């Protein structure tokens, strides 16, 4: 976190004069700048578009994760980050095609979550809006209901005319109704959505999935996942690629682009903002660990533009000691972090504290012997987390 690069960047930031809205000359060409990034970097519209496109393509190219002809599922949520991603995919394919470079085959894929979220449009509206949006960019489109999660072989559709209400909505609603906190609900939604995307990708013979997480989102996710006890999964959750599934790789091509850069890109390229997917602000921002962390980071980012890049770059340096080819969590399918728990670890302390509060003072001596004196590495019979990772065990515990 205190590397020389970040120190120099921080010093440079402090020494830059404030522009007070005057964007000056573009830093890439002699034209007048009209877009100000990080409070001091001025770009004209053309150079800004080149800058964002370059970030997107270099992120994919740098890691050599996508090969010529690869089928890629583009996870589309209807939000501005995934709308911008669809636009960037179209642009990169056109440019690559004209230069006879890497061309992959994308399919934009939408998961309908209306039954457990509260977007303005009906499910039918969302499907027709997303289909029209993809048609504008000449990209194939497919979709399915979130409750297909309960189906071993999820049913998906490629034609808007095939739309019909889902058959398992009650089962999905019942599951989410049991969840007590918004934090656990958001985690449950993320896990079911990811698992469903992977299963659909396999059915459609796509081995890669692009998700629209930008760097601001990833920085907030990093802090959120640590708070949710998913520290050992961070390289999968926030890295360039998530390879926890042996057959399908999740890729984050937007990870070098900040939220405000996405917003400006959408504005400059006049990308349609899809109202059907907008969500009313009904909950307080303090309602979940995720929304609270996002709020905290975005408010800090306004005055200190190095905040998100610093958190983001720190995340890139983190590795996990958990073996990727070992046992997997039965819910999120991430490598299991709770099979071997070292003594004096944070997880051991948390389990001890949880057991103590459940069993009361009378059991404290037994617990001390079990957790501290005997230094157990596998014996956690008091709390059965044998097939759930630590993060999932917290989420499941929050369901009544
Ligand atoms: Zn310029
Ligand atoms: Zn898990």
Automatic annotation (TrEMBL):
UniProt-listed SUPFAM superfamilies: Adenine nucleotide alpha hydrolases-like
Predominant cellular place of this UniProt entry's protein: cytoplasm
TM ranges: none
UniProt keywords, alphabetically: Cytoplasm, tRNA processing
Molecular-function GO term, any one: tRNA binding
Annotated metabolic or biological route of this protein: tRNA modification; 5-methoxycarbonylmethyl-2-thiouridine-tRNA biosynthesis
Location relative to the cell: Cytoplasm
GO cellular component terms, semicolon-separated: cytosol
Stored Pfam families: CTU2
GO biological process, one term: protein urmylation
Its biological purpose: Plays a central role in 2-thiolation of mcm(5)S(2)U at tRNA wobble positions of tRNA(Lys), tRNA(Glu) and tRNA(Gln). May act by forming a heterodimer with NCS6/CTU1 that ligates sulfur from thiocarboxylated URM1 onto the uridine of tRNAs at wobble position.
Family named by the database record: Belongs to the CTU2/NCS2 family.
Protein name: Cytoplasmic tRNA 2-thiolation protein 2
Lineage, uppermost ranks: Eukaryota, Metazoa, Ecdysozoa, Arthropoda, Crustacea
């Amino acid at each position: 976190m205190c590397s020389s690069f970040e120190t120099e960047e921080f010093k440079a930031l402090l020494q830059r004069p404030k522009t007070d809205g005057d964007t000056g000359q573009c830093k890439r060409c002699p034209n007048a700048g009209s877009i100000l990034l990080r409070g001091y970097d001025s770009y004209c519209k053309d150079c800004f578009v080149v800058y964002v496109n370059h970030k997107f393509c270099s992120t994919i190219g740098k890691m050599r994760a996508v090969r010529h002809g690869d089928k890629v599922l583009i996870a589309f949520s209807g939000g501005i980050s995934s709308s911008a991603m669809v636009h960037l995919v179209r642009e990169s394919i056109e440019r690559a095609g004209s230069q006879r470079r890497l061309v992959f085959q994308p399919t934009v894929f939408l998961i309908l979550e209306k039954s457990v979220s509260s977007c303005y449009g009906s499910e039918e509206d969302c499907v027709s809006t997303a289909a029209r949006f993809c048609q504008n960019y000449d990209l194939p489109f497919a979709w399915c209901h979130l409750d297909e999660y309960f189906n071993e072989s999820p049913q998906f559709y490629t034609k808007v005319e095939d739309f019909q209400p889902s058959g398992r909505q009650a089962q999905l609603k019942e599951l989410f109704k049991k969840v007590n906190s918004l934090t656990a609900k958001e985690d449950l939604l993320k896990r079911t959505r990811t698992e469903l995307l992977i299963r659909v990708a396999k059915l459609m013979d796509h081995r890669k999935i692009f998700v629209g997480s930008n760097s601001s989102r990833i920085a907030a996710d990093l802090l959120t996942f640590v708070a949710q006890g998913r520290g050992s999964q961070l390289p999968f959750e926030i890295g360039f690629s998530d390879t926890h599934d042996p057959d399908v790789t999740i890729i984050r091509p937007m990870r070098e682009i900040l939220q405000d850069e996405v917003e400006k890109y959408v504005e400059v390229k006049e990308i349609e903002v899809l109202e059907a997917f907008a969500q009313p602000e009904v909950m307080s921002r303090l309602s979940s660990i995720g929304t609270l962390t996002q709020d905290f980071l975005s408010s800090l980012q306004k005055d200190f533009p190095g905040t998100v890049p610093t958190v983001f770059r720190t995340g890139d340096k983190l590795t996990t000691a958990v073996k990727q080819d070992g046992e997997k969590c039965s819910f999120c399918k991430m490598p299991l972090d709770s099979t071997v728990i070292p003594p004096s670890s944070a997880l051991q302390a948390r389990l001890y504290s949880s057991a103590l509060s459940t069993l009361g003072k009378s059991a404290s001596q037994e617990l001390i012997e079990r957790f501290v004196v005997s230094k157990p590495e596998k014996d956690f019979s008091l709390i059965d987390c044998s097939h759930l990772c630590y993060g999932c065990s917290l989420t499941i515990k929050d369901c009544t």
